[in-house]
Structure formats: C-alpha cells, structure tokens
Specification:
It contains six helices and 13 strands. It is an alpha+beta fold. Helix 5 runs antiparallel to helix 6. The structure holds zinc ion.
C-alpha cells in the first residue's frame, strides 16, 4: 500500500503487513494507521561482515599501498556505539527562493566527533533501541542535550540558506526565515575501530558498522610510490626551471623566477608527501546536510 509521511509528506509504498514504518526521505518513524510518530531512541544494527577484512581490502586498492596489505595482521577490533541526535529541518527565506531541506545528525558526544561531523548517515535501516547492544560494544551516553544539538543543526541550515540568498542577491535576516524543525530522535550508531600491523609498524582506521564503508584509515606507502613522488616533484621543479630560462630570454631575470616559483610551489606537496611513509584514505564523501533525497 502507499503511505504518506506525516512530516515531509513524501509518498512511498510499503508491504501491507507492516504496521510501523520509517520514511525513506526524512527518517521519521510512524504508525501506518494513525500516522502518529513513534519512539525516539534507535540504533543501527551491525552488518555481518568482518570490519578488519573490509578495511584491508579497501586499503589494497589505494594508490601506493603494498599489494600484500590484505595479509596484514589485525591486532584489535573495537565496536563503538556512538549517540547522534537527528533532526529534519526545512527552512526558507520569506520572499526568496532560498530554501533548504536537510536530514541532519549531530554527534551527542565529543568522543570521535571529528569522525561523525558532516557524516552521511543512512536514512534507512534504523531499529528501535534494544538494550542488548550495550553489551555488544563500547556504549556512550549523550553528553550534550537535545536542545544544544538542535541549535547546532539549525545554525548549519541557516548558513546554507544565507549562502543561497547571497547568491541570488536576496536580503537575509534570521527572523525572515521560516523554520520547520522536527526532532527525529537519538540514534546509537556503530563504528568499528580497527588496529593492524604491517611490516612491524602499527596503523589504524575506522569502519562504519552499519554500511561497512571505511571512514578513515592510514596505510604504509611502498618504497616505489615514495620514490615516484620524489621523481615527479623534482621534474616539476625542472620544468619550472626550463620555463623560467625561456621566459628569462624575454623578460630578463624575473622570467626565471616566474617559472621557478610555481615549479617549486607545485612540486612541494608531491615531494613532501613522498617523504612521508604513510597516508590516510576514506570512502566517505562528507556534506553538511547528511542524507538528502530531494530538494
Ligand atoms: Zn518523511
């Protein structure tokens, strides 16, 4: 049958046997018959996949990673259940086309906050809170209040509406913004912390326990990749010098600098990254507004 979300009015189909459903567009959980919203504490279940294997497999596809990194030794895997407040926010500036609809997650603890800031949380897949998850991993209680989190979420959305207004040349003041904020509840979100050793050195990373995506992980660069970075860097300086010499013919001494300076500037990050023995990689594309399916 087709149901209509009581919050964002999106229509979507569900099997006839279901009595409680979650809107795939804004994340609202409601009773199908009464269309009343239910519950406000949820969790995301952990997928049945080895986080260590997912991490190493992802790293093996990264530039400059050793081919045999998949055989690295996993030292530890810790599951963290982190609290995140969710809001559905609709904001529009009166008399302007500046408008924003967002499903925003605000981390409720400072632990791992940098990992979850602007994180694209999935809308689907959450379940009603179950105390048994507290024993499955390290469980964190929220440290900030719902109100504080709501303030942060609204600020984020207002910033975007202001940017949009600036682009279209409309006058922006906060009191002209029509705000519709719907609290979606507290969600405990699973993140794996994985430590491994390769060639006697220690590395670590984080894997999303719900999607299996690698949020952030470090890996060793092969000698070859480091050497290559050095060669590219030096040749960039060489090209700069060459151009400089050509320009110098026409523009005198300043032409030489004109070629050399951009050459060195361009080469510096490459040479620099080549001198480092490790790198970080991520499978996540961050945005301020989390998950959004329509505008
Ligand atoms: Zn909805």
């Amino acid at each position: 049958m087709e149901v209509e979300c009581p919050v964002c009015s999106a229509k979507f189909k569900i099997p006839d046997t279901i009595t409680i459903t979650t809107c795939p567009y804004c994340g609202t959980t409601f009773e199908v018959q009464s269309r009343e919203r239910v519950g406000d504490h949820f969790f995301f279940p952990v997928i049945n996949k080895d986080s260590g294997g997912l991490l190493l497999k992802f790293l093996s596809r990264q530039y400059g990673a050793p081919a045999d990194i998949v055989e690295a030794k996993i030292e530890s895997k810790t599951l963290h259940y982190l609290p995140v407040y969710f809001f559905y926010i609709h904001a529009n500036l009166e008399g302007s086309t500046a408008e924003e609809v967002a499903f925003i997650g605000i981390p409720a603890t400072d632990e791992f906050e940098w990992l979850l800031e602007g994180y694209p949380f999935p809308v689907r897949g959450k379940r009603f809170f179950d105390e048994s998850i507290m024993k499955k991993g390290k469980y964190y209680e929220p440290k900030i209040s719902k109100e504080e989190a709501e303030k942060k979420a609204v600020e984020k959305v207002l910033r975007v509406v202001k940017e949009e207004a600036d682009i279209s040349g409309d006058y922006f003041t906060v009191d002209r913004v029509k705000l519709d904020v719907v609290y979606q509840g507290l969600v405990h979100y699973p993140i794996w912390e994985v430590h491994y050793t390769y060639g006697g050195k220690k590395f670590y990373g984080y894997v999303d326990g719900s999607t299996g995506l690698v949020i952030s992980a470090s890996y060793p660069l092969t000698q070859e990749a480091r050497k290559k970075a050095g060669v590219i860097g030096i040749s960039a300086i060489g090209i700069g010098l060459l151009f400089g010499l050509v320009f110098a013919k026409f523009a005198g001494r300043w032409g030489l600098f004109g070629g050399l300076i951009p050459g060195i500037a361009g080469a510096w990050p490459i040479v620099f990254s080549g001198t480092r023995s490790e790198r970080r990689a991520s499978q996540i594309i961050r945005g301020y507004r989390g998950n959004i399916h329509f505008r």
